[in-house]
Amino acid sequence: MTLTATSLSAHYGRLQVCHNIDLSVSAGEYLIVLGANGAGKSSLLGALAGIVASSGGITLSGRRLDQASARVRAGSGLVLVPEGRGNLFAPLTVEENLAIALRHLPGAERREILSEVLALFPILGERGAQPAGMLSGGEQQMLALAVALGRRPKALLLDEPSQGLAPVVLDELIAAINRLRSLGMALLIAEQNVRFAAALGDRFVLLRGGEIIHEGAPAELADRRGTAFRLMGTH
Amino acid sequence: MIHFVEYVLRGALAGAIYALLAAPMSLLFATARTIDFAVGAYALIAAAVAATIGGIAGAEAGLAAAMLSAAIMSLIFVGLKRLGCEDGIVFALASFGLSAVIESFVLWYWGARSFIVSYVAASWSLGGIRLDQQGLFNLLIAAIVVVILHVVVRHSSLGRMMRASAVNAVGATLAAIPVEGLQMGVYLAGGLLAGLAGLLVLYSAGIDFTAPLGLTLSGFGAAIVFGVGSPLRCLFGGIAMGVAQALASGYLSEALSAMTPFLFILLVLSMRPADTEALAGGRP
Amino acid sequence: MNLRMLRALAICVGAVAMIAGSARAQDAPVKIGAVLSLSGPAAVFGIPERDAIQAIVAKMSSTTKGGRKFEISFYDDKSNPTEATRAVNQAINDKVVAIVGPSTGSGILAAGPIAQRLSTPLIGPAGTLAITDPKNEFYPWIFRAAPSDASDVRAILQDMAKGNAKKVGIFYQEDAYGKTGVDLAREVGPSLGLNVVETASAPYTATDLTAQATKLRNAGAQAVFLQISIAALGSSFVKAARQVGLSVPIYANAGLAQRSFAENVGNEVEGLRIVSIGNLPYDPTPGEAELAKMLEAAGKQPQGWGELTGSNALMAALGAIDRQKGKDITGASMRETLESLCDFDKFARGRVCYSAKDHDGWHEDALVITEVRNKQFRSVP
Amino acid sequence: MSFVARRGNTLVLAICVLIALPVVTRNAVWTDSAALLGIYALLALSVGLSYGQAGILTLSQAAFASLGAYAAAICTVRWGWPPLADLPVALLLPALIAFPVARLVARLSPLATALSTLAIGSIIAIAIRSADDFTGGYMGIAGVPSIGFVKAPASYAWLIWAMVVIVVFLYENLCHSAYGRALNVLRFDQARAAADGVNPPMLVSAAFAISSSIAGVSGWLYAHYISFVSPESLDAHLSISALLMAVVGGAEFILGPILGTLLLDGLTRLLPAAELQGVYYGIALIVILLVARRGIFGLIEGGLAQVRQLRRSRSGEVTALEIEASRP
Fold it and tell me: Going from the N-terminus, what domains does chain A have, and what CATH number goes with each?
């Protein structure tokens, strides 16, 4: 297993928002965390990435990370793309955003990853000198992914990548994320868009009130009267 | 005409100090979206220590004292951040507090005396206008500092990280940028630059315990007037304010000349389009 | 209920104190307040004033020459008129019979009505003309403890008139002190054959005065008069004058007669003339030397004339106390005594007599013209 | 009932004043402090309205106050107007200057706004001290008469605090009016406010003008109470203090600035004065900011919210909004 969480809880001050979550994602696997607004998805991802206080165990490729700071986790390959493309720096250009993501690498490797990333998201090559904030929502999401890939993640955490995107752009994004399968990393996607989740995931877990209440396969999501929908309660 | 040119030149030289005080403000704003209102106090403590010890050792000790003061501010900054403060205005107000502490400490330790160093600089004649080497030296230092800062902020990896930390601290942490360390470093660098400005003021004029607020506000004006984001604009802002002031003291009545820097600021700000930069604090 | 009990207690204590007080009126120390600028820009004067008062009180062991015990308490007016009123209020509430201070003219003008309402005289070590303007409703309650700005300006311009200069340029700092001086010089100058051709000013924190010096040079000034109390500004102007080639004699009003100016500015101030209230640090009269010794005994280095004006105010108050031997002293009795006080013990030079018509007391004979030589102010005979 | 609920701040303040002032006015020094504190509280309230509600980070309030003070002094001393006749001038003059200035700065960032209000404040101060014959120049104007029937310091303390209560009452009404609600929307979402048909620059400018009038009143009271005004009386340092008072108490809360005034001024009273005063004051300020970043009222509100939340989280119902609110 690449990424495992055991009995993980997330806290804001004295307030606990995720309770004793166990999950694991293996290399190359796409796991969707489904849940309504406020179910605790972002908190769970934040706890894994180290930007939300947590208790419980986290390991990445066998290495324990639960005591490590957010920076160390990012450096070890546990990379989060926060909600609203929160890993981008809007006033900085596309090139500068990528340069920050790749800055720790030696020159040759940097060029290699850059060409790899640009091959995956060709649009970014055309937008190089534009400030990231000026890109369209879809392009920004591509850039956010590209920036995250620059760290050569072993496990990638995507928080609501579909947020604010038009359906047509969504299809492009699904295609782009599916292209990442060749990189063989563990992918954890928090979503409330069921269509998006059904199209991407190998497996899903359902979160409500900060607890996992259901696990299943994407096929289950095709049935609008199925357990998953009933449990989510909103759609 | 020759008089006009002379006023412009003298004003430009005087503006160098403002630029040097504005540079740390701009740098801090580029990194942490806040302003350090204690820069005038760093300048004062540097000058006080330098004047007391004297010589090169004094200058070094002065810079160290300024950096030590700035280090205290950086600790206050980190303390506020750790306690969950994100409002740039609160950091700025806390720096007012530190400025009061330093000013008062200087008054207590050294008394109400002025800090003056006797130092005779050679002067050069430029088309009949005599200019002190000290003044030209001030301008040179300001220009060098500002150009270095500009290159660092705009074109280096460090500068990219600094700007990234300012606009999106969470994103910067996720990108493994040492945000807090970087911001503390910028506070320290600000202390160094303000200390340098204090030494130049000491050698070219003299300074006393009442100076901090005035120096801070001059630097603040120079930093903001042409847009706070870039150190290069500080140099232009400082020089423009110096020139406006010199011309006003040369040609206008005392009342009008005292108003000039402020009228100039209002004029420039009123001509500026609405701010597009995401600025400190925002509305509370 | 608690409050009522407290009040009853307070009344009892007060009554006992009053009885004890009247029985031993002669033994209880007379209280004097000192409201001085211990912070803010006027601390340049306020701190030496306090130092001198402390040194004298220590030397006299809180007993007047006439053997009366006294007690002095200090309040900070923060160089601000509002704070001056609060401090004066507090001092009078603490039962002082006279107040030394406030340090600044505007502080005295703001506190004047309180002094009048609560019948406690202010002895102000400030030169501001308006404080002893008979038109003030509170005029009877204000006494000056230093020569007025008019005396200072007249003295230094008279010295200037001895030279060859006819066209005078003035540089002043942008505050009450600076502006008063320039107005007085414009008024007094012509009668001495001096014509003010140009004036220039700067705020306290100006870091470069070359533009101002250039302006005076361009106007063809043959002598320059400085009305400044911030030594750093003086140093800055002198350097600027040298730089722009304004090489004319420079005269300065008393504000600049500070040790840190003489000792730290280089050769360019050699020969600069400053009017000063006494010459405590360098050429003291025997009285001034005595004060200087007291200051040194208290671990303070004499800075200039602030110590003298502070001592003037204190000594006037002590003089008035000694004139009321065996009597109960109140604010009103202090005022009455001060109004006829003449030739009391003091350290400064000059003859001092207050009267109902003259609340200024100190005049031009308290002043001395000095010249900067070898980093010292030497008195000009 | 709703009247009471919507005037809560006014009631609380009025009750506090009615309880405190009779005790305070027994002592001459406390009476004097109470009067001055009321004047400063008005100044801090004006900052609360302009910064806390309209978002204008202002460094010019003392200058507006000195306009009010000089209006009082010139009308009564120079022109011999009867007392109270000068009040409208003290109210209108600052507003007439503040309104166009706000039109100019409302679209700028908070820092640029701070700088431009600082500039305006300085220009007003220089204009006042330069108009020798009219304003008395640096010497100022002494002998400003009392406001007719109000003479003793205790009556002033009552008058001044009555004024504070009135201002708080009007401020509270403003907050509950359509105008106040629009201002509130504007604070969080400019675009939405514009979409609602609000004219943001107009709205903000009006708020700034009102706040400058409040400052003008405080200056008017100052001149009549102290009987003397000079350029040093209400200087730029006071503008900064007023901002600090508002922020320390909680600028966005109606009573915040008043609490901040009592706290900061109380501190300067209690701390030993002299050269080291600034050291104590500065440290106290930093500590207060560290403990209460949104002011004392913000601290209290945050504490209450946390208690409520904790109670609910135990019973298991936590809304997304609350999680959002509790994020650092």
Answer: 3-89+153-232 (3.40.50.300)
